[in-house]
Amino acid sequence: MPTIQTKEQPHPLADLLLTIILPSVVLESLSKPERLGPAWALVVALLMPLGFGIYCFVKKRGLNFFSVLGLVAILVTGGLGLLNLSAIWFAVKEAAFPVFLGLAFPLSYYWRKPLVTELLLNPQVINHPLLQGSLDTQGKKLAYHQLLGKASWALAGTMMLSAVANALLVMYYLEGTVPGTEAYTQAIGRQNWVGFIVIGVPMMGATLLLLFWMLRRLQALTGLERDDLMNPGSTVRTQVTRKE
């Protein structure tokens, strides 16, 4: 069962940024021939999760699973990027990132550092001291952790759907083009911005729906109102209640 993370633990969202997201951005932006090229861009991208993993192992005396996940993700996407990819392999490459990102949610839950608490129940938005104080029975605590597990798998599912949609979109635009040609490059550019609209926007909507679902479940579980859950300070209603 996952436990509430302490200050000594690495920040899950920072882990994800340093080991998967940022290396992927570096790999994508530096792989062009006029920059580092695909081989050296892969080396630079791999240094981030590798270095962070070594740091965590030395300082925390443990294996950081985000670093392992990041290394695998960058090796797969970067390794495929070194090849003269046909449309189908480029689709695999483009689908790899959301797949590995999706795996991060349930794996972080079972690793006792649920990433969903940072993405949907961010401490900057949610009143965590009040929330944790309201989980005053073992039954409520168990229900809360089960809720985190369901939300983690739901986010993983949305990312897997994104991976499938991204692969299909790549196949649609790149099928019939020859790697390395101008038409191939133009098709990749078109696929990128179209993908943001037809995949990115619905994904943001699904994430918001999941957040509202979690808030409703937390309200029912704790008896707190949404204003109290989403405000780290005091609301007008709680101020009036205290005066009474």
From TrEMBL:
Is Cell cycle there in the keyword field?
Answer: no
Span-the-membrane segments of this chain are 37-58, 65-89, 95-111, 151-173, 193-215
Residues of the signal peptide? none
Superkingdom in the source lineage: Bacteria
Keywords carried by this UniProt record: Membrane, Transmembrane, Transmembrane helix
Q: Does Membrane count among this protein's keywords? A: yes
What NCBIfam families does its record include? VC0807_fam (NF041646)
Q: What is this protein called?
A: MFS transporter
